[in-house]
Amino acid sequence: MQKIGKLIGMLLIAVVFVVIPLYGCGDNVETVTNYDLDVNSVYGEIAGIYDGELTNSEVTGKGVFKDENDNFTYEGQFKQGIFKGQGKLSGTDEYERKLVIEGTFNGLDSIKGTITVDGIKEYEGSLSQYKHNSLKSYTLLVDDFVYHGSGTLYNINEEEVYTGKFKYGKPMDKHGFMNACKNYTSRDLFKYSDARVGSLVKYVCNNAYVDGSLVSNNNVFILDADRLSSSGFVSMLYQYHKGETRLVNGEQIVVYGILHGFSEDNALIKVLIIEEK
Q1: CA distances from 53 to 103, 134, 162, 213 (A)
Q2: Where is the chain membrane-spanning (predicted)?
Q3: pTM of the predicted model, to two decimals?
């Protein structure tokens, strides 16, 4: 019995010596508020405030980041100061619609998740940042993220519109097409009773260039309102080739959709309409 007792005692001592290092030399985790943090984006470093965990004095763990211009908020996992793991990026666009990107983040360049606009699912799949403006003063917005990689696009009824591969907002194996119609100036669009479908603009003006020269100004394309994506707006780009003439009424053209801004003076519609030509 004495031998068994000594053996048990030795085992207990061994366990204590093993366990103490595990707990005594672990990671140092603390919680901070109003911690200055810069995150990298296509526009450079974005300054903001971080509330959350620090692990061994690094921004690693769960937390919340708000950029200094209050354009977006990220809530989720961080690793060494970058968005890494499960998280949610949210903000509003210029129309005060709430945009949310939720999923798995590997920095801002590689995201797998869903986009919802005012609670309606727009897209599910791979995403990336896209730089729309070269101005140094421009800052990242929550709608500066585009479909990039494999994914599925949905319309405003959350019905599947397109599933496949995208490259910075453009579908890789299909294109949208629509017809040129009567030319209106961008300001005229707001005067016509049928220029809007709900809160969405129905027509789009497009300036086209050939070899650097403007050849087509204020072409307007009518949109199929039943096939709008829930984002409402995607700019229409048409790739002209040398020798092509100005668009005429009723002419079908190939367009691509990538996220872009919208204003009265620059009427670019954020709509991706998928059809086989």
Answers
A1: 20, 34, 40, 54
A2: 7-24
A3: 0.59
